[in-house]
Amino acid sequence: MTNSKPWVLGLTGGIASGKTTVSDYLASKGCLVAESRSLTAPGGAAMPEIERIFGADFIRPDGAMNRAKMRELVFSNDAARRTLESIIHPLVRKALMEKIRTGAENSPYAVIAIPLFPSILQLRPILSRLLVIDCPTPLQCERLRSRSGLSREESLAIIRAQSRRWERIEEADDVIVNAGSLPELLSAADILHQRYLRAAEAA
Q1: Cβ distance 110 to 196 under 8 Å?
Q2: Could you give the maximum distance between any two Cα atoms of the chain, in Å?
Q3: What's phi and psi for 174, nearest 5 deg?
Q4: 111: closest CA among 52, 174, 57?
Q5: Distance from C-alpha of 70 to C-alpha of 65, rounded to nearest angstrom
Q6: Distance CA 67, CA 196 (A)
Q7: What is the rounded distance in angstroms from the CA atom of residue 87 to the CA atom of residue 50?
């Protein structure tokens, strides 16, 4: 990545869609990855401000953000979502720019991975492409239940509170439908990765 304006991939998808798997895969291929998740982990850069604004109830004992509690709030309260975005967005940009500054010579392109769809749209002006990881709702619900222990009703409520599938797909430049095995998902990700490599080199 030698050009002054970096080639940046936006990566998003519904909960339990497989976006973290794809993000990790691209990182393993040498891409610079900036993600909101690391900002809200224990010791994350966003945690002091999140605790100051939202309160200690939104902080887990290990110091990370209580994702379940925050998800419930921001999916039902637009003002809270915008407040969270106002904390997260500048830090994601800063993390990405710092990664580019320190590791640009060894990276083919950069990736911004943000779960909340409205949040990734706020960053659309700096994205070269937007990749959405999609998953059929019944399978998405099954995966969410398997990893979280939630009931079917609770899982569906979370899924329905997110942006609709068609909204994400309509906005996307590229879509991977993650309805098969892990090797199939990684194969689809690699096909796009090769295209992104060529696009970044030509930019």
Answers
A1: no
A2: 49
A3: -140, 145
A4: 174
A5: 8
A6: 31
A7: 8
Q: How far apart are CA 24 and CA 54, in angstroms?
A: 29
Provide the whole-model pTM.
0.80
**DSSP letter string, 104-115:** GGG-S-EEEE-S
The SS3 call for residue 4 is coil
Per-residue pLDDT of 123-136, as tens digits, reads: 888 899 999 999 99
Pairing of strands 8-13, 110-113: parallel
SS3 at position 164: coil
- Given a contact cutoff of 8 angstroms between Cβ atoms, the answer to whether 137 and 119 are in contact is no
Q: What is the pLDDT of residues 102-120, one digit of tens each?
A: 765 678 898 988 887 877 8
Tokens of 93: 């940009």
Give alpha helix (H) positions in the chain.
Answer: 19-28, 36-39, 47-54, 67-74, 78-103, 117-122, 137-148, 152-161, 165-171, 182-202
Residues 157-179: tens digit of each pLDDT: 777 777 788 888 999 999 999 99
Cα-flanking dihedrals φ and ψ of residue 113, to 5°?
Answer: -110, 110
